[in-house]
Amino acid sequence: MYKLFSPIIAVALAATSPVALAEYFTSNHLLGACQNTLDVFSGKSPSGPQNYSPQYCVGVIDSVVNTNVLSVMTGNKPLMCVPDVDRATKIGHVVRYLRKNGPTSDPVTAVVFALSEAYPCKRG
Predict the structure, then answer these.
(1) CA angle, corner 114, sides to 120 and 48, nearest 5?
(2) Contacts for 44-52 with beta carbons within 8 Å, 24 or more apart?
(3) Cα end-to-end span (Å), the chain
(4) Torsion angle of alpha carbons 14, 15, 18, 23, nearest 10°?
(5) What is the pLDDT of residues 97-120, one digit of tens each?
(6) Is 83 exposed, middle or buried (0-12, 13-18, 19+ CB in 10 A)?
(7) Cα–Cα distance between 41 and 100 in angstroms, integer?
(8) Which of 29, 70, 80, 116 has the fewest Cβ atoms nearer than 10 Å?
(9) Cα(19)–Cα(82) distance, rounded to whole angstroms?
């Protein structure tokens, strides 16, 4: 499943402002980008650095959710069961998770853990 994430992240990186690539592969950057996104969604100016792009946040989270859907469509068990909620709700879960658990080296894994915690699948 992780093989599916690599091309998606590469596309998300290509669509963002130029910043050192190493910074993109940390959850600290994701946290800043997602906080900026929540600011923009609520009508405020972004509170973080300008290179913390809202598009990066949305791209990473949407990519994880869409990859989970594709994985289920190919017969795998879901990692999370995300209901039909708006982006701001999903972003809020990611921001809260990162603030509670601290940074990780991989933003994709952080999103998977955050959304799996917020939207666990019923096992039965």
Answers:
(1) 155
(2) 50/17, 51/17, 51/19
(3) 23
(4) -70
(5) 999 998 887 899 999 999 999 999
(6) exposed
(7) 22
(8) 70
(9) 31
Residue located via tokens 């603030």? 99
* DSSP characters over 44-94: PPP-S-TTS-HHHHHHHHHHHHHHHHHHHHTTPPPS----S--HHHHHHHH
Nearest Cα to 9, choosing from 57, 69, 72? 57
Total-model pTM: 0.77
| Per-residue exposure over 39-67, b if at least 16 CB sit within 10 Å of its own CB, e if not | eeeeeeebebeebbbbebbbbbbebbbeb
Measure the CA dihedral 63/64/65/68, to 10°: 120
